[in-house]
Each structure stands twice: as C-alpha cells, then as structure tokens.
Design a protein that fits this description.
The structure holds 2 protein chains of 2 kinds. Chain A has a single domain, classed as Pyruvate-ferredoxin Oxidoreductase, domain 3 (3-Layer(aba) Sandwich). Chain A is about 40% helix and about 20% strand. Chain B folds into 2 domains: about 260 residues, 3-Layer(aba) Sandwich (Rossmann fold); about 110 residues, Rossmann fold (3-Layer(aba) Sandwich), CATH 3.40.50.920. The chains are: A alpha/beta, B alpha/beta.
Chain lengths: ~180, ~375
C-alpha cells in the first residue's frame, strides 16, 4: 500500500487525538500494518487548534511526524486556518460543514461533510462526533476495515457506549462512501 | 508462541520493560514528558505485588529508591529536565555506595524549566558529569519502542551486574510517540538477579570486599547482617576512611568496573555501513530522522549509512573508531549543541572530517535539516 500520512485537527475535547489513536491502533493490532501516532503537546494543545498525526504503512516508519499530510481533517475554522496549507498537493481535505467555511484555495480534493449535524440529528450526543469523522475517513480512504475500528473500540470503551459508537461509525462511513 | 502486541507510547514501553525485568519498587515525582511512566506504574506495579510511591519531590524519590535497593529490591525512578538536576546529588551517593538502581530521564528542552513539552537531547553530558567527582556512569538510549523495552531490561541487568546506577536517556518524541511493541516471552531476554552474599548470619560480612571476579555480593539491608553504608570514601566494612591507599583504590575501582567492561556494555545498531563513505552517527529519536535520510539517499546511489548508538556512556569509542575512522565524512545528528559530536571528534583519527547536524529549537529534527548539512559539507549550498 501507499504510505498514508494524516493530520486530524480540531479543538480540544472534540476527540481528534482519540480518533487518531483508535485508527492507528486498529491498523497495527487488527490489520498487521505499521502505524505511528504523535500529537502536539503543550500550550498549543490547550484551547487552540489541537492536532494529531498518524502515519500508516506496510513497511517500517522512521520519521514519526507528518509534514505534508495526504489526508487532512479540520473540524473547526481555527484548525482549518492554521493547517489548510500543509496539505500535500492532490491530497484529501475533509471539513465539517457546521464549523468550517473553506476558502477552496488549496490543490486538494475537498470534501465538506455534515458530520456534526448528522451525529446530532441521528444520535443526539456530540461525544461520538470523532468516531463519525473516523468513519468518514475510513469510508473515503479504505485504509482499514470498519470491523477493525469496531474491534478496537470494543477493547477501549465501556460496553454501554459500543452501540452509539457503532452507529456514529456507520453514519460516517455512509457519508464518506457517498461522496467518493 | 504468541507474543503480546501493544500499540502504546514509548513511556509505556519503558514501563513494560521495567516490569519484565522484575521491577519491585518505584518512587517518583511526575514531570512532563516522563509522567506516563509514573502514571502507568502507579496502576501496574501494585497489581504485580510491587510498591509505588509518589514522593514529595525528585530528591526524595532518588533517596527512596536507593534505600529500597539496599533491601534487595529492583528499583526505578523517572524524571525529566529539572528533576534530573535535583537527582544528581543522590545519584552520586548511589555511585559511591555502589547501589543498583535505574533512573529514566525523558529529555526535554533546558536549561532550568526550559521548554517542558518539546524535545531535546541536551542532557548527554549531564548524565555523564551531572554529579560531582571522578566517577563512571552507564547511560543507555533508544529510538523505537522495541529498543526502549530492550534497553530498559538491559539497564536493570547492568545495574545488578556492576552494582551501579544506570541512566535511561530517552527523549520527548520517543516517550510520547505511539507505535507497536511486541512483548517478548518470559525467559526470552535473560535477567540478571541480585548477587547475594553466601556469608551466614552472625558471621562477619564485608559489604565492599570484592570477590575474585570483582563483583561485590550484597546482603539485604535489615536482614541478617549489620553494616554501614555511606557517601564518604569507605573501607571494605563500609566505614569512612581517608587513608590515601583506600581513597585511591576505591576511586580506581568505581571507574574501572565500568570502563574496563565498556565493550560488554556497548550496544549499537548499524545500517548500510559496509561501503559507506558518509556515516551518520545518531541516537534516540534523532536516529529515526537519520535513518530516513539514509533510506532516501541509498536508492539514489549515495554511499551513506547510519551508526546508531544505544550506549552513550561508557562512550563506545572502539565502535565509533571502527565505523568512522575510514569514513570520508561523519555527521553527528543530535538535538543539542554537539555533546556527542565533541566525543566523536576526540575519538576518531580525523576530527576535521566530523560535522554536526543539529536542531535546538524544540522542533524534532527533520530529514531536510540533515540533508541541508550534507549539501553544505559537499560545497553545494542549501
């Protein structure tokens, strides 16, 4: 497979770091791929735009950070403004319609998805916003199988929350596959 | 055999390594970027019958592990930056009293409180000379989680073998990054256990009388023998002495037991060095960027390789000479102002062929940073 470098960005509490960890863990534990995940620490991670980096590959990964992502997700306008221009030309940019007004200035495939609205409409709980986003990423890129994400979720979260996460993942997958 | 596979942070890989090595006791004071080591051990260690104590500060933590080690336990503390400075006095005590212990320093930007959340490799010389007086020290490092695990186990083995503190010099990038760790089966990596004295209770035990092979059997403090432990120069009973012969002999012993065994402790990895004309020499997370450069330039026909040091102290001079003496250029890649580069320059036959590719702004060194230095050396400009 092609090495895929991703940056998930948003604001603290939206769960972009958790989503990055779940994706990378699913790739390593359930797909026998190689993955490295890093994130911004410090003042940048408090209140400002949060960022999590994931690299997935089938060969060893030496350099652990992402400089030019193939896939960039921005869940807030601030994150978009800060990171939109790091995307690799021709890459995939995913933004949330409720929070982000893209300027469409970059050379990338731009996908504006109503992630937040759909989660609030169908589930009504914003805590699975990040899993819906992850579903969209997986739907668009097919980097890992959705079952691998579910297996990872089942190991990480209390059983009472599994169903809600499954629903959010499926909503995201549908949206991702629908706009491919 | 199915080995357990985990996707975790480097700090957790260190925890797994310590538990594998048989850690009994941890005392520490959390500090970024080492906090996850204390956090995970606070849960994991008691589950395995060990003891975890959060102390009032780093000085007390260091003193607590020294005391616990004397009672026969395998001990660890973890810290960073200013915390490592605070530990230096008691670290010297452990050197002098020959107490096995492992100290993790997950390096961050300094001096002082510096840049707490960003990466640095600026404590290489502090690990060597942070505590006062002539002495020797062991410091190991690693660039990936499998090696963090292996070097952590090795740190405990060296500490027990040579009755010495061992420093694990990791850094923020390796500590916080998440990647795969495969935990070896029990017994796959040999463990060195405490060498205890065969002297019975009620019979005189000399805590500092070496056996013929130079090793000093220990007696669990508080068990059957009464003996003295001090930071003063001491005789074979552990009592203070200023007899010049004893002072001289003890200092020689403390240095020789490490330096004479440097080759046994020299851990390193080589990549594409067979025909390399340009040798990148690196360690810790910086070695990942260096390897990235090597694997990028090799397919383009460039004769470039990497020597990754995992033992920093005692400095593996023989290894560095073996790979760098015949190189046209050696470029030391590190995130400080040339602490290992200086060592390499004093070690190799042609110090004028040794260059530094570094970064000191808290940002992880990139392949572009290294390639720019290579271009400058070749007179191509950046």
């Amino acid at each position: 497979m092609e090495r895929c470098r991703m940056v998930f960005s948003g604001s603290g509490g939206q769960g972009v770091i958790t989503a990055a960890i779940i994706l990378a863990e699913a790739a390593v534990l359930h797909e026998e791929l190689t993955a490295v995940q890093t994130q911004a620490y410090g003042a940048a991670a408090r209140g400002g735009a949060t960022r999590a980096d994931v690299i997935i590959s089938d060969v060893p990964i030496n350099f652990p950070k992402v400089i030019q992502p193939n896939v960039l997700v921005c869940l807030t306008q601030e994150a978009y403004n800060k990171f939109y221009d790091i995307i690799r030309p021709g890459g995939l940019m995913i933004t949330d319609t409720r929070y982000v007004q893209p300027q469409l200035k970059v050379d990338a495939v731009q996908r504006q998805l109503p992630l937040y609205e759909t989660v609030m409409d169908k589930i009504g709980k914003p805590i699975v916003f990040n899993i819906c986003m992850l579903g969209a990423v997986v739907g668009l890129t097919q980097l890992v199988r959705p079952e691998s994400i579910m297996k990872t979720l089942e190991q990480r979260i209390p059983s009472g929350f599994i169903e809600m996460n499954r629903q959010a993942l499926e909503l995201g997958l549908e949206m991702g596959q629908g706009v491919k | 055999m199915t080995r357990q596979i985990k996707f975790i942070q480097g700090n957790e890989a260190c925890v797994e390594g310590a538990l594998y090595a048989g850690l009994d006791f941890f005392a520490g004071y959390p500090i970024t970027p080492s906090t996850e080591i204390a956090e995970h051990l606070s849960r994991r260690l008691p589950q395995q019958g060990g003891k975890f104590i959060q102390m009032e500060d780093e000085i007390a933590s260091m003193c607590a592990i020294i005391g616990a080690s004397l009672t026969g336990k395998k001990v660890l503390t973890a810290t960073s930056g200013p915390g490592f400075s605070l530990k230096q006095e008691a670290l010297g005590y452990a050197v002098m009293a020959e107490i096995p212990c492992v100290i993790v320093n997950v390096q961050r930007g300094g001096p002082s409180t510096g840049v707490p959340t960003h990466v640095s490799q600026g404590d290489v010389m502090q690990a060597r000379w942070g505590t006062h007086g002539d002495h020797s020290i062991v410091a190991l490092t690693a660039s990936n989680h499998q090696d963090v695990f292996a070097m952590t186990v090795e740190a405990f083995n060296i500490a027990e073998t040579y009755r010495t503190p061992v420093i694990l010099l990791f850094d923020e990038v390796v500590g916080h990054m998440r990647e795969r760790l495969e935990i070896p089966e029990k017994g796959e990596i040999p463990l060195v256990e405490r060498l205890r004295t065969a002297v019975q209770g009620g019979v005189d035990y000399h805590p500092y009388l070496p056996r013929e092979d130079g090793r000093l059997p220990m007696s669990d403090f508080g068990d059957v023998h009464r003996y003295n432990v001090t930071g003063l120069v001491h005789d074979m009973w552990g009592f203070p002495s200023d007899n010049p012969k004893i002072v001289h002999g003890l200092l020689r012993h403390l240095v020789d037991k490490i330096e004479n065994n440097a080759s046994q402790m020299a851990h390193y990895k080589t990549f594409y060095l067979e025909d390399a004309e340009t040798v990148l020499l690196s360690f810790g997370s910086a070695a990942r960027s260096a390897l990235h450069v090597v694997e990028h330039l090799r397919p383009r026909g460039e004769k470039i390789g990497l020597l990754e040091l995992q033992t920093l102290w005692p400095f593996p001079a023989d290894v560095v000479q073996q790979y760098c003496n015949s190189a046209r250029t050696t470029v030391v890649v590190e995130m400080n102002m040339g602490q290992v580069c200086q060592m390499v320059k004093t070690t190799v036959r042609h110090p004028e062929r040794v260059f530094l590719a570094n970064r000191i702004d808290g940002v992880f060194i990139t392949d572009a940073d290294i390639r720019n230095v290579l271009r400058l050396i070749e007179g191509k400009g950046v």
